[in-house]
Design a protein that fits this description.
The chain contains 7 helices and 13 strands. It is an alpha+beta fold. Strand 8 and strand 9 form a beta hairpin. Helix 1 packs across helix 2. The longest helix has 16 residues. The chain starts with 6 loop residues before the first strand and ends with a strand.
Length: about 290
Amino acid sequence: MAAGKQNSLRVTAFQQSMHPKALRHARPVPQQDALALQTLNERHVQQTPLGQWACDAPGGFAWLSVADGVASSPHADLASRSFLQVLHSAQITTPLQARQLPGMVRQARQDWLARYLKPRTRGAACTLASLLYVDGQVCAVNSGDARIWRLRPQADGSVQWLQLSRDHTAWQQMLDEGEADAGQADTYASIYQGLLHCLVLDADDDAGEDGTVPDDWLHIWHGQTTPGDAYLLATDGLHGTLDDVQMQAIWQAAPSSHDGLCALHDAFRRAGAQDDVSVVLLHASNY
């Protein structure tokens, strides 16, 4: 970062419940997504049928997370909300480094199991995407199919989308191992979207003799921001409704990052999506 320059950070987010069961019953089905917004001044965990939030993040610090309760698991809404409440349980009072995020997520997983694993909640599960931004350093982690993108402006006026997360799905594993190619997505991807890893309230059956659990469930990315970068976190309600080409075209046509986020929300609603969605945007600029 150039001397004398400071990062101005702006956080915006939206959440909407669009569960298929909610369309058929008078009593709404609980929102299965949750999102967390944490700055040096504020800390919020939200789980609402419809909501929009915005705040500044002073001091070059922002910590953002989205979680999606797995619909096929019991108490899916509790899983997503409770994990983010554990992860974002304390106000930040000591300096942090972005690279500490994976350790904080691992510890939160253990604390979550200790606090919420009961006979009635066993098997409750959620996905996670979390991003910690500290003084221009960024760490992004995910478990399951919640995603994180970096949106970087280019000299020609376009925006480069880089997916920082990795889907923990059978389809992604097939792509990684060369058993399929991206061009087959329309034909086969829906068959293989089952999650290979996510956060589950259950005993650590995969723990080794030393009691540790392999990190297969957690994907980690480290990087450094440049002026104008934006980071987008979303549960699979967004990218399950709008594909990459659609999202990038919508964003490119918007005059600002805020307008881009609003346009993504409008497109999600117009598509008649059959899933809940939570989306958080962090935009960094210099002044």
